């Protein structure tokens, strides 16, 4: 490992921790090991009752989706400074998080749930996913996780709309507006008084996933510096993406190399113990993380961010706007206050694009003729520049 600084998405005491190699080697390994590591598994119950019992060869992006969401749940319930220790009794919240990903049909974010929900996105069980599809699936599954009560928002068309996110994370704003009308009719704010506690929460924790395309067949080097800056944001969850034949969960960088967790290891499925504990050693990567040159990255990625409070989201917006003023790299996405009139509703988007005119983008992932997804027609035509970051 060279003496370049390694940047990881660790937030302690409201400050980003930047590790220096050699001096803090143990801290680096502890950070990596503490992240949930989801890999291929075999011998789990058949998906859908009669489907595959292993995801080897097709589930790598699904596992990467599990990892980025798993990091969000750790931040949500345990905090960014939480550390896993082998052979130690684990906190109850940690066990609950791990149980949400166990390979069985009734776990919130299991391979079973992701694969079956993906059918609605046009992906048959056993077919390779792109980053956009897995983001859309996680958004739908999070609705059923009443314990975490996350808002998973997928920002489409390379645009993050602040007004839209605040409406999702603070639904009481809309309900309170309706309640005020009721109050005018009945002489009191009956509607507001009747709101359930969960509806009056000041802010529902936000998982923001931004599918992006940073070039055509290869990543445009003009985006590299901006991508690095994303890892340095304290709200960062990392990036899911990959290269031909592989999908990875990227958690940081050193110099011109990305640091990532690799799902391409097949392990036996795990069954929880009778006391509810989970044999968890195989869910933590206990060796140094993998590295790859950033130029090898496929241009289709999804960047993730977690904002537990409104203040954290406001801080993220401020940091993004500062980055947009910096020189030295192209902006990756646009941050706007309200939805531009030209934007198409997410519900109207076709999330399974036609690649008939995009042969040069062809990729082969895990022996599947499945390309990373193009997020808009203008990108398919080769218009790589995305307005503002």
Range of strand content: 15-25%
Termini, distance in Å? 31 Å
Assign the structural class, choosing from mainly alpha, mainly beta, alpha/beta, alpha+beta, or little secondary structure. Answer: alpha+beta
Mean pLDDT: 80
Q: Give the biggest sheet.
A: 9 strands, mixed
Work out the number of β strands.
13
- Work out the helix count: 11
Shape estimate: globular
Instruction: Report helical residue fraction.
Output: 25-40%
Residue windows where pLDDT falls under 50 for at least 5 positions: 1-5, 9-17, 176-200, 346-389
How do the helices and strands follow one another from N- to C-terminus?
EEHEHHHHEEHHHEHEEEEEEHEH
State the domain count: 1
C-alpha Rg (nearest Å): 21 Å
EC number: 3.4.22.-
Protein name: Cysteine protease
Pfam families: ATG4_LIR, Peptidase_C54
Family: Belongs to the peptidase C54 family.
């Amino acid at each position: 490992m060279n003496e370049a600084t390694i940047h990881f998405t660790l937030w302690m005491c409201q400050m980003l921790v930047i590790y220096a190699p050699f001096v803090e080697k143990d801290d680096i390994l502890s950070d990596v090991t503490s992240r949930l590591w989801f890999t291929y598994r075999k011998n789990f119950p058949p998906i859908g009752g009669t489907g595959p019992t292993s995801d080897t060869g097709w589930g790598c992006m699904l596992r990467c989706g599990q990892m980025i969401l798993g990091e969000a749940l750790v931040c949500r319930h345990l905090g960014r400074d939480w550390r896993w220790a082998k052979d130690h009794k684990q906190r109850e919240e940690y066990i609950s998080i791990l149980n949400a990903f166990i390979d069985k049909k009734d776990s919130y974010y299991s391979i079973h749930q992701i694969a079956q929900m993906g059918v609605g996105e046009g992906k048959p069980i056993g077919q390779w996913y792109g980053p956009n599809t897995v983001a859309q699936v996680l958004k739908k599954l999070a609705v059923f996780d009443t314990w975490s009560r996350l808002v998973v928002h997928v920002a489409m068309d390379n645009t993050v709309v602040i007004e839209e996110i605040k409406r999702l994370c603070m639904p009481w704003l809309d309900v309170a507006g309706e309640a005020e009308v009721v109050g005018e009719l009945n002489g009191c704010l009956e509607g507001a008084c009747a709101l359930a506690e969960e509806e009056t929460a000041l802010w529902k924790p936000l998982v923001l996933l931004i599918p992006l395309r940073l070039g055509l067949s290869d990543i445009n080097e003009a985006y590299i510096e901006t991508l690095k800056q994303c890892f340095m944001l304290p709200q960062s969850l990392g990036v899911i993406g990959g290269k031909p034949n592989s999908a990875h969960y990227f958690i940081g960088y050193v110099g011109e190399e990305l640091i990532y967790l690799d799902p391409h290891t097949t392990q036996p499925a795990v069954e929880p113990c009778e006391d509810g504990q989970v044999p968890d050693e195989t869910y933590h990567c206990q060796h140094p993380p993998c590295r790859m040159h950033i130029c090898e990255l496929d241009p289709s990625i999804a960047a993730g961010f977690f904002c537990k409070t409104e203040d954290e989201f406001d801080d993220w917006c401020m940091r993004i706007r500062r980055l947009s003023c910096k020189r030295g790299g192209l902006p990756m996405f646009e941050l706007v206050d309200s939805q531009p009139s030209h934007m198409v509703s997410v519900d109207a988007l076709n999330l399974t694009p036609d690649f008939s005119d995009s042969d040069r983008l062809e990729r082969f992932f895990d022996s599947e003729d499945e390309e990373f997804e193009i997020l808009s027609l203008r990108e398919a035509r080769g218009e790589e520049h995305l307005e503002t970051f």
